[in-house]
Amino acid sequence: MDEFIWRALAGGLGVALIAGPFGCFIVWRRMAYFGDTLAHSALLGVTLGYLLDLDLNLGIVATSLAVAVLLVAAGRSQTLGTDTLLGIVSHSALALGIVLTTFVPDLRVDLMSYLFGDILAVTGADLLWIWGGGALAGLALLALWRPLLALTVHSELAEVEGVPVTLVRIAFMLLLAIAVSLALKVVGIVLVTSLLIIPAAAARRLAGSPEQMAVAGAALGCVAVAGGLGGSLVWDTPTGPSVVVTASLLFLLSRLVPDRLSLSR
Amino acid sequence: MPDRERLVEGRGLVFRPGGQTVLDGIDITVDRGEIVSLIGPNGAGKTSLVRLVLGLARPDAGSVWRRDGLVVGYVPQRLVIDPVLPLSAQRFLALGGQAPAALRAEVLAEVGVAHLLARPVQRISGGEFQRLLLARALLRRPDLLVLDEPVQGVDVTGQAEIYEMIARIRERRGCAVLLVSHDLHLVMAATDRVVCINRHLCCAGHPETVSRHPEYVALFGPGLADKLAHYAHRHDHVHGAGGEVLPIGEGAAPAGMEARHDHG
Question: Of the given ranges (A140-144, A175-179, B11-15, B236-240), which has the lowest mean pLDDT?
Answer without folding.
Answer: B236-240
